[in-house]
Amino acid sequence: MNISYLLYNRNCRSKEKFFLLLISVFTMQVCLAQQPFAKWTDKELILDNGIVQRIIQLPTTTGKFITTSYNPINTDFKYFTKISPDFQFEINGTIYSGNGNWLLKNIAKHTDAKQGEGAAITLISADQKTELTIRFLLYPNLPVIRKDLVIKNLGEQIIMLESVDVEKFETTPYWASTFSWICHDYGRRRSIGPYDGNMQDALITVHNSDWQQGIIIGNEASGVIKHTSVFWQEATICAGLTHKDARFPFRKYIEKGQSFTTPQVFTMVYANYKDPDEILNTAVPDFVRRHMGIRLSELEHKPTFVYNTWVPFGKNINEKLIMELAKAAAAASMKEFIIDDGWEDNLGDWGIDKTKFPNGLKPVFDYIKSLGMKPGLWVSVGSASPESKVYKEHPEWFVIGKDGNFANLHIADNVSQIRSASFNTGWKDYIKKILLKFSVDYGLEYLKLDFAVVTSPYRFNNEESGDYATNHGFTDHNESFYVSYEKVWQLFDELHAAKPSLFIDCTFETMGGLQLIDYAMLKHAEGNWLSNFNGPDAKVDLRIRNMAWWRSPAIPATALVIGNPEMQDSAWDMHIKSLAGALPIMLGDPRKLSATDLKKYRGYADWLQLMENRYGIMSFRQDLAGYGEPMEGMWDGFQRINTETTSGGIIGVFRQGGADTERKVIVSYLDPLKIYTVKEAVSGKIIIQKATGKQLGQAGFKVTINEEYGGQLFEVAEK
């Protein structure tokens, strides 16, 4: 968060007051940096990083473990009651929560590798059957408390864990539930009343505009087994894993003496915000980028302009075509070149089709690299054809359906063409060896890993999901969901260990839900192919910008891989401008471009790379003040300002059939005292010669778009 910007605009109008306040804040932060974020006695735990405070009542000898206070510092926070159960789960049908009877065993300092600091509290259940460690982490200068549970089986028999709420808060009567917006689907869709979340709820905001207060709930569980509910069946806010009555229920069996660690949940309480989007554009992306441990933050060189062969060629590719496309794409200054489906002899064996590629793929990859591009490849990471050698030799590696037959988890109309593999078998090491050969031995830099592996985006009967096998290392169908996700993430981690620079595009099909992306994926893969939007007209650009707006800023924009705009479309420049708010990726046939168009492409591609080099734009994206969700008949926009250096970034502004031809653009999150210039993209034409961050944040600059459907990109540069 740009603290200087927020302080200047909220708390003072004069430079003198601003500097005094800035000095006091700096002094406070230095003092806080020297103090632990967690303190405790034998009766009470206090979590406090100077931004938020949470107080927890500890069991003395035996008793409850409950949150008694959780609020922004020095704020009368009205959402929570004095007693919140803190957590809840079921073991063999018995409910355990903070309201139960626990024995305090131990408290210790808890840290992570991303500046997290807090405490780990170990409890023993009253029945002596369960050991529970509750782990809290806080981070510098952010209103974040991150939490997970470690549940250990102390009994003699295997136990069944279900319905896990990592966080559970009791809310105050009437006002909290009646007058709060519940902002779900990545914090973007607003509703009133009880809400039971789904797979798309990586993040939910609960906001009361009368109080100007709210809470962010971020759920780091995987795919279809994440669960967040607000005022659902009771006056609580809960986040964790899906309950036993859910469409895709979580279940985990824990053997004697063994432990299970839940996914993490993070919460942010805030006050004095008129709209929840303000914290969604500041503290949330700051936490995700700096401290969550996402792969994009580890990637030294982020992609800025990608080409993919899927449209219009489909599987109809060969060596000659790929060489021609690569030469044309390089002439357009593309940075990554991805060969999609059609190179393989079959699904499963992943041999190279020698009729299409008689010399194999390595010479093709080498040629792509010689043109200055990074090569990439499509692979269906968990699929095999019935004719494949691997399926015939290892049928025990493949998913079994409810009917006892081999299953296809992908699309119903190709059941006979695909067998879905179970990653909790020898398949994981088998496919890992193949992927390592391409990425390490052949120099591959980008893997598009596709097709359903746990659940399908295209199947609506929840019984046609997961794995019913009895010999795949899990006890039953419900447990297969969690285990399968974890094994896929383990595969990705092992690929990155061998090649840290590898960009893994884990498609929404692999995630298991339509256009699904979440924090679990972000910690193991860099991107997610979210869509297949076809067509040359403005509706495609609208859908691109809407998809990017919808999932950002809760999700890093560069993780949003949005296809299928084509390079040779008549309005191709609008594709690029729209995609500049996500990960720019183009398909189509670059051979059809004229020399003039190729020159223009190079201009945009080189400009995007320059913006990344100067400002690191691919690590940032914020909403553009005064511009809402992209929709027909309106204007929309985005900004990608580096809020850590405040050195500048880019702005995108679009007229989608709006009646007016001129709009004002306000640039947020710049340093109010620095001097900036505003230029048109590519041409470098000066729009604003000299303005302070304060002036651009208040008066802004005017943009004229005469076309009914058009857009412009701008650079904001520190002078």
Structure description:
The chain is an alpha+beta fold. It folds into three domains: 36-293, alpha-galactosidase from lactobacil brevis (Beta-galactosidase, Chain A, domain 5, Distorted Sandwich), CATH 2.70.98; 297-618, Aldolase class I (TIM Barrel, Alpha-Beta Barrel), CATH 3.20.20.70; 620-718, Immunoglobulin-like. Helices cover 24% and strands 30% of the residues. The strands form eight sheets. Strands 4, 8, 9, 10, 11, 13, 14, 16, 17, 21 and 22 form an eleven-stranded antiparallel sheet that branches. Strands 6, 7, 12, 15, 18, 19 and 20 form a seven-stranded antiparallel sheet that branches. Strand 16 (203-208) and strand 17 form a beta hairpin. Helix 1 (3-11) crosses helix 2 (15-33). The chain is globular, with a radius of gyration of 26 Å. The relative contact order is 0.09.
Strand segment count: 40
What share of residues are in beta strands? 25-35%
Mean pLDDT: 94
Helical amount: 10-25%
Question: How many domains comprise the coordinates?
Answer: 3
Largest sheet: 11 strands, antiparallel
Structural class: alpha+beta
- Supply the CATH architecture of the largest domain: Alpha-Beta Barrel
- Indicate the low-confidence ranges by residue numbers: 1-15
Number of helices: 18
Topology-level CATH name of the largest domain: TIM Barrel
